[in-house]
Structure formats: structure tokens, C-alpha cells
């Protein structure tokens, strides 16, 4: 089952530093999950000035519980980068 996961960073002044500190673990985790077929697409959400303010991921998980478990262990969650996370079931268009 596919899910759209949107994590929004905290608005505080320390949020960019938390993101930068957690980024290596975040990227390594994404690489491993992409190799396992769980990550379809991923990218940073940006403000109008081009600074990161969150993340978006389309992932493939067996069910909602598995998607929630991913979010719970994600380095941006455990490091306090994301202050809110939305997990929404998604059906991608299959191009013919």
C-alpha cells in the first residue's frame, strides 16, 4: 500500500541545526529503504527562499501500522526535526 508522508520541521531558530545534524542518518535510512523497495520518491519541502521546512515521501508499506512504525523510527522524528507528520494513503497513477 502506498502512503504520502509529510513531515514539517519546527519553526524555532534551532530547527535548521537539528535537521543538519540528523541529515546523514536520515539519508542513509532512506537509501536502505529505497533498496528494500519501500521508498518510491522523497524530497525536501522548501519555503519561498528555498530553505528546507519539511520533507515529503511516497513510500510502499504493507499497511498503515508499518508506515507509522517507519515514521516513529525516522531520524528526523527521533531528533525532533519534524514537529508534525501526516501519513495519508495514496494511490499513484500507473502510466501506460
UniProtKB/TrEMBL annotation:
Top-level taxon of origin: Bacteria
Annotated signal peptide: none
Domain annotation YCII-related: ranges: 1-90
Family annotation (InterPro entries): Dimeric_a/b-barrel (IPR011008), Sec-metab_biosynth-assoc (IPR051807), YCII (IPR005545)
Family classification: Belongs to the YciI family.
Stated name of the protein: YCII-related domain-containing protein
Native source species: Brevundimonas subvibrioides
Amino acid at each position: 500500500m502506498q502512503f504520502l508522508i509529510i513531515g514539517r520541521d519546527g519553526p524555532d531558530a534551532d530547527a535548521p541545526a537539528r535537521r543538519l545534524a540528523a541529515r546523514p542518518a536520515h539519508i542513509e535510512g532512506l537509501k536502505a529503504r529505497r533498496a528494500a523497495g519501500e521508498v518510491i520518491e522523497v524530497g525536501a519541502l522548501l519555503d519561498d527562499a528555498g530553505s528546507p521546512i519539511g520533507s515529503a515521501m511516497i513510500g510502499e508499506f504493507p499497511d498503515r501500522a508499518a508506515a507509522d512504525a517507519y515514521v516513529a523510527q525516522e531520524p528526523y522524528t527521533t531528533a525532533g526535526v519534524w514537529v508534525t507528520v501526516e501519513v495519508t494513503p495514496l494511490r499513484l497513477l500507473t502510466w501506460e
